[in-house]
Amino acid sequence: MSNALNLGDKSGLRKTNDVSKTKQIFGDRKVLYNGRYHRLTFVPRHTQRISVRDHNIVLPNYAKINLKQVVKDWMNKETGKLVEKRLKHLSRRLRLRASGFSVRNTRKWAYRTRDKRIIFNSQLTGLPAGLVDYVIVRELVRLRESGRPKKLNSALASFVPDFKEKEHLLKRFIIA
């Protein structure tokens, strides 16, 4: 039985691959969410709930005051929910474990700590699903191969055969 994973829809990644320029998570009045740009739209309401509908991220009017921070806080929560779900699934499937995780605003997509926790970037939810899974698997493998850098690439290739392509695609997304 092969440990190799199919991380995401190849056609979705090809569309990303066709774009020769980088993609910013935060653009002018748009935000990358699940690998696609969504327009920011505002509605006059008093609740603090943010929703996603028809490629729009719907925010209450008050969010205009500190828009970037409101969207970053929302992405942080969304990333936490996404990582919790995917990390549980991938850990079980690959029989690799982390002692926990947290979500922060970091310069990298993810990194691991000495106590075997993984810190994920709060904007991870902007990436396509296949790249999100790749980042999670990469960090789980790094935990297992910690201190053995020569084995890292072969171990990663056993789980994600096209990891070099995924790494190349990941570099196209700019963390804001």
Summarize, please:
With 176 residues, this protein is α/β, with parallel strands linked by helices. Helix content is 41%, strand content 22%.
Write the layout of secondary structure elements.
Blueprint: H1 10-18, E1 23-24, E2 26-27, E3 30-33, E4 36-43, E5 51-53, E6 56-60, H2 67-94, E7 100-104, E8 110-112, E9 117-121, H3 129-144, H4 149-159, H5 163-170, E10 173-174
Parallel strand pairs: 1-10, 4-6, 7-9
Antiparallel strand pairs: 2-3, 3-4, 5-6, 8-9
Helix pairs in contact: 2-3, 3-4
Q: How many strands?
A: 10
Low-confidence stretches: 9-19
Number of helices: 5
| Fourth CATH level, the homologous superfamily | Metalloproteases ("zincins"), catalytic domain
Reported by name, the CATH topology is Zincin-like
Tell me the CATH architecture: 2-Layer Sandwich
User: Beta fraction of the residues?
Assistant: 15-25%
Cα-based radius of gyration, to the nearest Å: 17 Å
Distance between the termini: 40 Å
Strand order, main sheet: write it out.
2-3-4-6-5
Structural class computed from helices and strand pairing: alpha/beta
Overall morphology: elongated
Query: Roughly what is the average pLDDT, rounded to an integer?
Result: 87
CATH C-level category: Alpha Beta
Tally of structural domains: 1
The largest β sheet comes out as: 5 strands, mixed
Helix-residue proportion: 40-55%
Order of helices and strands: HEEEEEEHEEEHHHE
